[in-house]
Amino acid sequence: MSLTGGNRNDVTQLLPLLDRVRPVRGRVGRPRRRPDRLLADRGYDHDKYRRLLWRRGIKPVIARRGTPHGSGLGAQRYVVERTIGLLHWFRRLRIRWEIRDDIHEAFLLLAAALICWRRLARTLLGPLRPCLRGRGR
User: Fold this and answer.
1) Which of 26, 28, 41, 61 lies 20 to 30 Å from 72 when distance is taken between CA atoms?
2) For the Transposase IS4-like domain, which residue ranges apply (predicted)?
3) CB-based contact 65:42 (threshold 8 Å)
4) Can you tell me the distance from the alpha carbon of 120 to that of 125, in angstroms, rounded to the nearest whole number?
5) Distance (Å, rounded) from C-alpha 77 to C-alpha 34?
6) Does the pTM exceed 0.85?
7) Strand, helix or coil for residue 7
8) How far apart are CA 39 and CA 53, in angstroms?
9) DSSP labels for 85-117?
10) Cα angle 43-59-68, degrees, rounded to a multiple of 5
11) pLDDT in tens, 64-79
């Protein structure tokens, strides 16, 4: 994760972000490898960055600017958009009020932990909720 100013173009952080991605674990005994594709929206459609991605062995799956919508990337991008929507439930993260970036990152990590906890509690305790409600009466 990296924080930049609000008026910076996102594509400038593409390569530093890729450098921070750890190799994906495979089966035991198999070598680790980096992801082989990058899904991005039209804001990342620059020939310079496409070439740099190909050199790294990463296939860019990026919609071209000026083409009609419906490229088929929506199904994969929905995961990212849903995550951003979940983070925006936390009012403090909708607009960055903190001057110090470490405080903002701490709130971001706390929100991510709460989202994961709520999802796990709903999944694991969902079938047990009627039993838990009956206790104590």
Assistant:
1) 26
2) 2-115
3) yes
4) 8
5) 20
6) no
7) coil
8) 12
9) HHHTTSHHHHS---SSHHHHHHHHHHHHHHHHH
10) 40
11) 887 777 656 667 777 7
